[in-house]
Every structure is written in C-alpha cells, then in structure tokens.
C-alpha cells in the first residue's frame, strides 16, 4: 500500500501548537527522512545476445523500503508504490568475448519507454570489460515500473558478468 506523501508544514505562526498540527509535522518529517528508495543488484551472470535488447534480472535487493521489487517474478522491474519524481541510476557492463568493434548501451526503461541511455562506442580489445551508467529523474505514478536494459552488437552473445545495479530514490512530487 502506498504511503501518503505529506506536505511539510512551513510554520506555526503565533499560535499554540496543537496535537493535530504536531502529528502532521512529525509524519511529514519522518516521511521525508525515510523517503521511498531501493537498490537492486544482480549476482548471477546473464547472456546478452547480439542486437537484442535485454532487460537485466535483479535477483537481490540491498534496500527496498516499499517492497516494489520481487526477486523471482518480474525480477527485471521495480514497481512504484508511492507516486512522485524518482532519481533513477543504473549501471551495467559486459565482458568482451574477443571481437573488436561494436557498440554497447545501458538504458533506463520506464513502462516500456527508453528514458535515458548511454552508448559506449568503438570497443577494442584493450579492455576485458566495458560498462556504463545512466541516471535520470523520472516522474512516476503508482503502478509504473522501471527497468535497466543492455544492448550490444558485437556479432555474438556476450555475458554481462555480475555487479549490475539499479537504484531509485524518491526526490519529490
């Protein structure tokens, strides 16, 4: 169940503070000190076929204050319980399987629409792993969901290894 997003009282001008006013202030302060947030991680390597968008399966949560992630069913998603604007960051990469060239991208997806992506151009064999991070502020409603997507075009299936993560933090209405 979604928490109510309270307004923070600005002041109590020249009046005695009533129990009702004090309780609303305490709830508002508590909500804003513990705003909805999640940090999802991946501990199992995942295959990323060439020229195919692949959603990352997050099988673990370091933090999930709202219970918006299920590590078994739809584990690529974080489903919003409290509406508002969220700061969403995602980080992922892939091990190079031996072919030079190609591109990779890491994207943040909200309700099946690409919100932000970072594209890594011109891979070479100097590095054994390439990675990237994407960050965006996204207005979301209750029931909306956010995912992280990888894409690559090396000509062969590659592994993203482990260590991908996606973080979300409620920043306001």
Chain-wise SSE layout:
Elements: H1 19-33, E1 37-41, E2 47-48, E3 54-55, E4 60-64, E5 78-79, E6 84-95, E7 104-110, E8 113-120, E9 129-140, E10 145-152, E11 158-159, E12 165-172
Antiparallel strand pairs: 1-4, 1-12, 2-11, 3-10, 5-10, 6-9, 6-12, 7-8, 7-10
Q: How would you describe the overall organization of this protein?
A:
InterPro entries: Tumour_necrosis_fac-like_dom. This is C1q domain-containing protein. It is a single chain. The protein is mainly beta and 173 residues long. The protein has a single domain (36-172), classed as Jelly Rolls (Sandwich). The chain has one helix and twelve strands. It has a five-stranded antiparallel β-sheet, with no helix packed on it. Strands 3, 5, 7, 8 and 10 form a five-stranded antiparallel β-sheet that branches. The chain has a two-stranded antiparallel sheet with strand order 2-11. Strand 7 and strand 8 form a beta hairpin. The chain is elongated and about 70 Å long. It starts with 18 loop residues before the first helix and ends with a strand. The mean pLDDT is 83.
């Amino acid at each position: 169940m979604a928490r109510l997003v309270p307004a923070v009282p600005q002041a109590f001008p020249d009046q005695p503070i009533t129990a009702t006013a004090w309780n609303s202030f305490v709830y508002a302060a508590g909500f804003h000190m513990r705003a909805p947030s999640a940090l999802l991680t991946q501990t199992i390597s995942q295959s990323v076929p060439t020229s195919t968008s692949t959603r990352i399966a997050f099988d673990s949560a370091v933090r999930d204050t709202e219970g918006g992630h299920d590590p078994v069913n739809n584990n690529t998603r974080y489903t919003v319980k409290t509406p508002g604007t969220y700061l969403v960051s995602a980080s992922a990469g892939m091990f190079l399987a031996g072919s030079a060239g190609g591109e990779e991208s890491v994207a943040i997806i909200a309700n099946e629409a690409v919100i932000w992506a970072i594209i890594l151009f011109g891979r070479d064999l100097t590095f054994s792993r390439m990675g990237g991070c994407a960050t965006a502020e996204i207005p979301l409603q209750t029931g909306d969901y956010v995912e992280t997507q990888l894409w690559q075009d090396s000509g062969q299936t590659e592994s993203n290894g482990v260590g991908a993560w996606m973080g979300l933090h409620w920043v306001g209405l």
